[in-house]
Amino acid sequence: MKILDYIKDNILYLDGGMGTLLQKEGLKPGELPERWNITHPDVIKKIHKDYFEAGSNVVNTNTFGANSLKFSDCELEEIVSAAIKIAKEASFEVKGDHEKYVALDIGPLGKLLKPYGDLEFSEAVSIFSKTVALGEKYGADLIMIETMNDSYETKAAVLAAKENSTLPVFCSNAYGEDGLLMTGASPEAMSAMLEGMRVSAFGMNCSLGPEALKPVYEKMLEVSSTPLILKPNAGLPKSVDGKTCYDVTPAEFAEEMKKAVKKGVRIIGGCCGTTPEYIRALKEATKDILPKPIEDKNLTVVSSYTHAVYFGNEPVLIGERINPTGKKRLKQALCENDMDYILKEALSQAEAGAKILDVNTGLPEIDEEAMLTSAVCAIQAVTNLPLQIDTSDAAAMEKALRLYNGKAMINSVNGKEECMEKIFPLAKKYGGLLVALTLDETGIPETAEGRVAIAEKIIKRAKEYGIDKKDIVFDTLAMTVSADSSAAKETLKALNIIREKLGCHTSLGVSNVSFGLPERDGINATFFAMALSKGLSAAIMNPFSIPMMRTYRAYMALSDMDENCTEYISFAESHKMEETAGKTDKEKLSGASALSDAIIKGLTESATSLTEELLKTEAPLSVVEKEIIPALDIVGKGFEEKKVYLPGLLMSAEAAKCAFAKVKEAMESQKSDMNKKCPVIIATVKGDIHDIGKNIVKLLLENYGFDVTDLGKDVDPFLIVRAAKEKNAPLVGLSALMTTTVPYMEETIKLIRKEIPSCKVMVGGAVLTEDYAKAIGADKYAKDAMEAVRYAEEIYK
Q1: Which pTM value belongs to this model?
Q2: SS3 labels along 31-46
Q3: What whole-number distance in Å separates Cα of residue 397 and Cα of residue 420?
């Protein structure tokens, strides 16, 4: 039976940890486990057989880290082909009539993608594609993408899987204690993106035990219409007699997983620390539970790299300002490639209350495809609002959708056959919420009934592409009342019919209604109120328009969507402040200088130019002490309070880095020097090639003035100690991502204690906990980069 047919009516049992068992079999710290497919095939086969015999329906091939960053093309093919062959043989040799499948296992690359790291999105797709193609070639039954902690890398892997195979794609992410991915994605955001990309199943694995992951899978069950995966660790790791152990027993693990299955989780297994014993207990505990039916939640949703925005709960405001139509200054910015101006427009609209940003760069005198993709990537680097990609150029739309991090709005499709044939395949491939204009080859119908008929045609054609009406928002086209007095009435009538009878959400470009009339804000605001009363789901509007925002806030208060009228009161009071202080005096209102504000918002170009200007009147050290460091502290505090996500922290750090570069130039020209804080040595331990966390710590430590020596990854303990001695460093920072390399971390700490007793050691990495860090002799466990900075500040004092 094919696996997708099997999971329709059955619980699907996955396997457990591979690395845990390989360590018991003698895998050395730092040794690449994928090579054991060649050197120790019998060991790998026995592990697979043990899982099948314990009740697993699916075993993952020993290819978690099999990619072209680690292996040559020739060795990669040898490893993947051997891994699949071994797993297939194991499935044939195990007796029993339960269904058995082999999954090509794909793990993260260990690098952050741009703009936060140095790996291009297209390069990540290419790397994953090589492994995927080999999985298809050598007979895997499905692709299992797992332990991804970044939504963008997840998208790259899923695209590679979809473009290079016909196999079902399962995808599992690693959520932290805060219920988010490392780069900030919520379960709802990942659900929106992965369902949009039509993966066969998705969920979570690693990081935590089953009880700790309960809030994550419960949120996913609320919004997901796809089979859900749960593959937790056997609790938290700890070091006992130099060996890594976990604190949840097989029986306890099975009991918690039983609760998850009863709630609706369909695909279950284990990750780090789990063994065939855990899977056997899991199978026994859940064998009599009938799988809960998977229901279509019928949600209309878009997402960014951090969160989802749902239509229907309350009206959604879509900022219209990044569109050159009628905007002379934006046209100039697009022609001059003035991205800083565009980013400021994005940020200011977000501050004004927009929940989604429309991005349109269509000018005949520029390369729209290049500008649109640049704008989408740059805007996503400084704001976490979802975007509406707005273009009539299908090629530009595809490129922007490919690079977009999340599930975007697609503006637009219409009832013209040629348009539907171009846009529907893009929505199906990349995921997206379609804005459908109610026009076709005959133009825009004058009557509401004519526009509804086009909407019905679009729904029918979309279904042929596998696109449900929940992924379509209809724009019934606001026409100017100065040309046709009945235009507004027909638009609203069509809107109401589509909302009530067709059950679809709606959107309008509100300001079109007043074209050619004086005092346009008054017409727009009144029309907006009328549309809201007819069930308008979203409005493309100017969030800086006081009448429009007053109407929106009043509607929310009157519709019981603003508890205690809090937002309305806040809006009214802030508007009074602006009138009193003057609209151009926003910096004084916010309490932040222009440079600090640019750093906080991650505006690198502004930070550079503002620093240059400030250095004409201020001493370099004064700029650092009064502007740069306070801005970093604000962002750092926001990160610690979970108000700022990792991408925002990194972009602010990059802006500060640009400002520091200008300060350094000024000091060199004045033949003065900036006093650096104490030396700090950082390294990823021997055998571990993952350096995302280390690189983030380096960037922040340098911004706070520490003299950082980065030894890179896969660093021998002796080299770390030698560097610490040479630099007379009072602090060493060590990173490890894999359980198989933690022994080298412990070995390094022991050598530091022996050779440099006064040197402090802080450690970090996904496999560590505070107790685990203490057990291997570390002085400090830093759960994130800002905690590492705070500890370094303590040592420096």
Answers
A1: 0.90
A2: CCHHHHHHHCHHHHHH
A3: 13
